[in-house]
Amino acid sequence: MTAWTWEHEGYDPADARLRESLCTLGNGYFATRGALPECSADQVHYPGTYAAGCYNRLTSEVAGRHVENEDMVNLPNWLPLRFRLPGEAWLSPDTAPVLDHGETLHLSSGLLERRTRYDLGGGRALLVRQHRFVHMADPHLAGLRTEFTAEGYSGPLETEAALDGGVTNAGVPRYRDLDGRHLTHVLTGTADADTVWLRCRTRTSDVRIALAARLTSPAPVTHRHDRPRALQTTRLELVAGRPATVDKVVALHTSRDPAISDPLHAAVDRVGRAGSFDALLEPHLTAWDQLWRRAELDVPGEAGRILRLHLFHVLQTLSPHTADLDVGVPARGLHGEAYRGHVFWDELFVLPYLNLHFPEVSRALLHYRHRRLERARAAARDTGRRGAMYPWQSGSDGREETQKLHLNPRSGRWLPDRSHLQHHVGSAIAYNVLQYCEASGDEEFLHTKGAEMLLQISRFWADSATHDERLGRYRIKGVVGPDEYHDAYPDAAEPGLDDNAYTNVTAAWVLGRTLDVLRGLPEPRRRELAERTGLDDSELDAWDHISRTLHVPFHDGVISQFEGYGELAELDWRGYRRRYGDIRRLDRILEAEGDTVNRYQASKQADVLMLGYLFSPAELQAVFRRLGLDLDERTWRRTVDHYLHRTSHGSTLSGLVHGWVLARARRADAWKFCQEALQADIADIQGGTTGEGIHLGAMAGTLDLVQRGLTGLETRAGALRMDPVPLPELSSYGFTLRYHGHWGVRLRLERGLLEVTVPSSGRSPIEVHLPDRAVSVQPGETDRLVLPD
Length: 789
Known about the structure:
Structural class: alpha+beta
């Protein structure tokens, strides 16, 4: 292991899927899991390939009901390359003796290296070495180089490379009752002596997909077509100790691509014009060098190694190529089929990081939401409300993709899924619009698409609020907060909770900030917007009133997660930990016992405490003051302590949020949760879920924990505002930013000192505000600032 490599030594089938997820290679357009090319999809291996935004919808019969689900499609497998001695079985680690095996993920270059020695018996061995890339410069290309070396013998070796269109979506065991056959009309053919192709389409979304593969070998290449596979075979004559190299270069296109006439023609043409494996490496390596410079991160020790791995996977899912696509943030990356590739609120943890490095990518991801604004407005109308009701789970067209049923693996029962009531996703989108515009200075987006989304999200919140004469306040009823454990009151006939504090406080904040944006619009634009939407002063006055009078429940001197939370029973946490050990999925445990977590003060993840993640202490206090409420430091600390002891951390986001909040509220305990967030995927702390896809929000969130959480960095009112909270375990670190047109702004914190370097340019100086002073840093200058104690 080095700072820039992750090594996996030995072969253990039990770890295969975790390793395949963590060794996924991608470029923002498509990604391929790190499966061994000689292994097919089975109970051990799962070689999936996914293109961003490529979905298909199927209907399945589950528990006596017809259930419709849209999935990110597992595309035809371009990886297969198997080998054998003539007349013998194909070799794989599951069927042949392995003398040694290792894989190395090279983060700096985006390469996956593999080395396996197969025992052939009689003192003979076959050494297989491979290097793989998914091209970061040309997003439609991938390559696989395989070197075969005979040890202790000379003789023939047969190889077979394939494009396989017989794949299905079968990577998540609990989805296996659902139809996963998304591809149809699979055809194969030959384009040239060394090139074969495969084309197909998705069954209902009618996305056309084409791959072309070029095989280069020291021996003649023959081809045959055994649909749904296109096969290329060679017979190598191995000489002991002398490597023989087979290179496979593949091009992938779909009908969603711009500037092509036909995916098949584009794929065949691209692979035909592509250079050799070696020639393709140079621009690929250059592209990765440029990415690492733009996202430079200098954190010492093991934390730095893990953060670099997290950044690697974020960049493979959301790269500059993403800026040209109509896609959102897939919660599990392009690394597997968990959550069906859907877009949730996870962008709330991703965009704040991207804003300060790749703002063009953030803008594209917000365009995805804006293109689906009309669908969100239609969803609101369907419930009798105005404005935009964005879906909890989104896919191709912005309709609600949340499943109607979900499986509890402990009980084997299919249960109603009510998470579509998490309307707070609208506030997450509004938050990201405002964060992006502050960080980038993109007034054009704020005045146009941003203002349109903010207006319609605010309109939805205002129309969702009902006035309670007894309280003299507005209430938002029938929702679910970030804590998905609680989706109804005990024994209630209908789902939903009233006055979820996170939902109400963020709704009030969105209403207030939207009013600020609308007042700040140029008068001609404000007039256009009012004419198009029917917005008038009376509606704005109503928003202002609601934003100051939304109800926030309290109990026992702490903020209540929702109205009535304090009346729920206390859980025997010690008893359940003693009986079950890992109780992260407490909801499944209780349901299998015939009970429900709705009866208890027990949370899956941070809910109320999410407010401390989104807002600095000063801003959170200001939001409460606007609501006519006092949130002093003691009340917030009591609230943090209350929920800290009642949370099972059944989400990878939970450790991240708790670490962020505790860094300011209870510093001595913060690092424990920061460590949990760092370990979430590499240690697979959620019990096997990482093998189904990495947790992109948690990965990006750990990067933002260093970038904004520990530094207290805010981009407000045209300045970088910082209020660092050094942790003893991480007292020295640095990173670069892109801010308001300044590229490569470097911040470094070390032993009570903040160093700010602004590279030379023709732009204005950067204003840096600390709690006790403000400075202006000119382009081409470095300022060293002593931090207040």
